[in-house]
Amino acid sequence: MDSSYTVIRRFTPPTCTLEIWGKNSPLSRWTKQTVVKDIQFKLSFDDPRILEVEPITISGDRLKLEQLYDLVLDHTEGFLAQSFNNQIPALAITNQEQLANSTQPYLTSQGLINHQLNLGSLATKESPTTIDLSATQLFDLVSALEEYKTEMAVLTELETQKAQKVRKLIPIGVSVAGILLAVGLTTVGIKVANQPEERDRIAAIEESQPEATSTVPQEDVIPPKVPEVAEKPVTGIQESEPLSSLETLPPPPAVDTLKPPPNIPDPSQYPPSGNLTIPPISSLPKPNSASETAKSTTETSPDNSQVESTINIPPETAKPDSPEETTQSETQKTTELEIATESNVQTATSPSVSSVTEDNSLQPLEPDEQAEITISEENVAIKAEIGEKLEQAASFDSRVESEAITENTTEENLNLNNDEIALENTTPKPTTKESTIIENDSDSIAPTTRQLQEAASYFRQKWRSQSELQQTLEYRLIINQDGSIKRIIPIGKASEIYLDRTGVPLMGEPFVSAFPQEQSLVIRLLLSPDGEVRTFLE
Amino acid sequence: MELWRLRQANPWRKSAGGRKKLDVEEARSLVLIICYLAKQEKELLRRAVSLLEQVTAQNKEPHTMALLGDYLDKFINLYQERMAEETAINSDGLYQLGLKLLIDLLFYSGNSGHRLLWLAILGKASFKEEREKKE
Fold it and tell me: H/E/C letters for each residue in A343-390?
């Protein structure tokens, strides 16, 4: 056999050996299992009980093997069906019609336990034309062929799958690329987000001498941000629009109508929300070198300052524990990343005043406006950072809440994009939702926990540490609605023995205070040998 | 246990009166049970069939061998005890049937045994479950 052929399967029931050979197909690389083609087989009847010099061997390609499989299976099925037809062959060999010289291979049963396999076309030069098989040999042959069949089914399945896999590869590649892109963007965003912190500190120290120092750290960060330029620039374009519309300042009630449709988040839409929080441009020091010229424009332009001042309330005014504040800061957190990246990109490009990036990001804007926007954005980032820090320091507890609110906040962001003015009104909404939820929770949980505590305190009084006790006693207490005990179920043998020492109240005896729930309360009671009492709701 | 009672559905049993016919699910379950039991006894079955082959090759009577003799006795007794009179086969036929079923069981003990048995059953619309006799 060809050297490129490898034995891929060998089925070895006691009385015969079926070897399957095949060429490894190049498709094997695509699948974890080997895929083979040009399957060859070699079947040897090597019954150890029959001491023949040469075991009878037949071989051929896959087609022949399939033929043999069908033949053997058909015969076996026919043989087995005899039992149902009252055609029990005699144990002794009966004379059978010999279909001599038939090219079709066939199997005949000769009596109950003997079968004759006429190989016909399957026969090779070396092999005899007929093979006598006993029942066990036939059984082994059937097993080997069945195993081969199931194995091949798997392999052919794989073959069909691999075609699909190739087709799938394209979308997978796209999604993988998307994931990589997303990861890359977030890491860049995080880096950038950290950047303003540094700048923040520096700015605080060197408020008087803003320009030179602040630009240095920014330049360090420049390389990673470059990819963002392509995405972010769009934002710059949109910014100009909301600003002009803000002058009119529509009344807050619009919020309710806007709330329902949460838009599909478009990366280009994030920045506007950042614009809203921008507030204190005028008050903050501008560290950016590009801001020099911008400073004058921002201060002089009444529109922007007005907008900012109206919207930016959150971070500074926020009270640490109020849920409002957390939501606000949360929104800022989310927006902050975006803003920070944007501002950095812009600041990075702005000092050199490279025309390329300006073209990308800020084409529609007038040079003055552009500069102003970069400044304000940067400030926003800084502001947001401050707000976040304040909030973190103020309330750790609120974090849990804020996490829960993130969904809301993303929604908010979208709303912000729709209408910036709505921001102030929308932000409180989620918080009120939050608080109501909490109230509901407390309504449902509080009473049962009270029962739990009562039960625990009851047993703390009654339960004394038991020196001879080795293990923790465990009981399931089913409490009636009126607070009396309905049932006590000891869990474990020891719990059963020690039941009378636990001081558990009698059934029907008031035990804990009544509770409003319909169904009875189930409390798991754990009494440790050291006198510790624990109760859980079940 | 529920399935065990289904044996009563065998129309050839003495107590077969009034029992409903097996539905496909029940039959399928029985097939799986039979094959599972056969698989557990695979080694014994193989030994018995090999022995049968040897004995036949030596032109001896199978029941002279202890293993086969015991089996045949048991089978014939159970069959006569449980099965209705009218379907009774003469002792020679029963003898053959016992051996045939022994060989069949060997096939059913294989990995694809349940498929073989199911096909055999489908091949014969009205069937019986003597295989249980063996157990």
Answer: HHHHHHHHHHCCHHHHHHHHCCCCHHHHHHHHHHHHHHHHHHHHHHHH
| A56-61 and A36-45 strand pairing | antiparallel
CA distance A520 to A124: 81
A250 pLDDT more than 80: no
**Is A25 in a helix, a strand, or coil?**
coil
Q: Could you give the count of Cα atoms lying within 13 Å of B116 in the half-sphere of its Cβ?
A: 30
**What is the tens place of the pLDDT at every residue in B5-41?**
445 445 444 444 445 566 777 778 878 888 888 888 8
Q: What is the pLDDT of residues A341-377, one digit of tens each?
A: 444 444 444 444 444 434 444 444 444 444 444 444 5
Q: Residue A160: CA atoms inside 13 Å, Cβ hemisphere, count?
A: 5
Query: Are residues A80 and B104 in contact, defined by beta-carbon separation less than 8 angstroms?
Result: yes
Residue A267 has pLDDT above 70, yes or no: no
Query: Is some CB atom of chain B closer than 8 A to the CB atom of A48?
Result: no
pLDDT of residue A89: 58
A443-537: what CATH class?
alpha beta
Q: Which two tokens stand for residue B41?
A: 């006894």
CA of B95 vs chain A CAs: smallest distance (Å): 10
Mean pLDDT taken over chain B: 73
Rounded to a whole number of angstroms, the distance from the CA of B18 to the nearest CA of chain A is 23
Interface test with B, best of A77, A115, A132 (most B CBs within 10 A): A77
Taking residues A195-203, what's their average pLDDT?
53
Chain B nearest C-alpha distance from A64 (Å): 21
Are B106 and A135 within 8 A, CB to CB? yes
Least CB–CB distance from A113: residue in B53, B93, B117: B53
CATH number of A5-166: 3.30.2450
Supply the pLDDT for residue A360: 44
